[in-house]
């Protein structure tokens, strides 16, 4: 059985649905768009 910490450590990086770049995940964020693509000026 795999250690829970190792399981989460080995998950692939989350990617933005619009540009495909790796996202910096936040503690309470379930979004799928990065900060650059989600900027209100765009």
What secondary-structure arrangement, pairings included, does this model have?
Blueprint: H1 4-9
Task: Explain what the structure shows.
This protein is mostly loops. The termini are far apart. The model has no long low-confidence stretch (mean pLDDT 86). Pfam families: YhfH (PF14149). It comes from Virgibacillus byunsanensis.
Number of DSSP strand runs: 0
Structural class by sheet pairing and helices: little secondary structure
Q: Indicate the mean pLDDT.
A: 86
Largest sheet: none
Report the span from N to C terminus.
Answer: 46 Å
Shape assignment: elongated
Number of helices, where a helix is a run of at least 4 consecutive DSSP H or I residues: 1
Which stretches are poorly predicted, pLDDT < 50 over at least 5 residues? none
Strand-residue proportion: under 5%
Share of helix among residues? 10-25%
- The run of helices and strands is H
Q: What Rg, in angstroms, do the CA atoms define?
A: 13 Å
């Amino acid at each position: 059985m795999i250690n829970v910490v190792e399981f989460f450590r080995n998950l692939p990086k989350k990617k933005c649905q619009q540009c495909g770049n790796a996202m910096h995940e936040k503690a309470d964020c379930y979004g799928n768009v990065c900060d650059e693509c989600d900027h209100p000026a765009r």
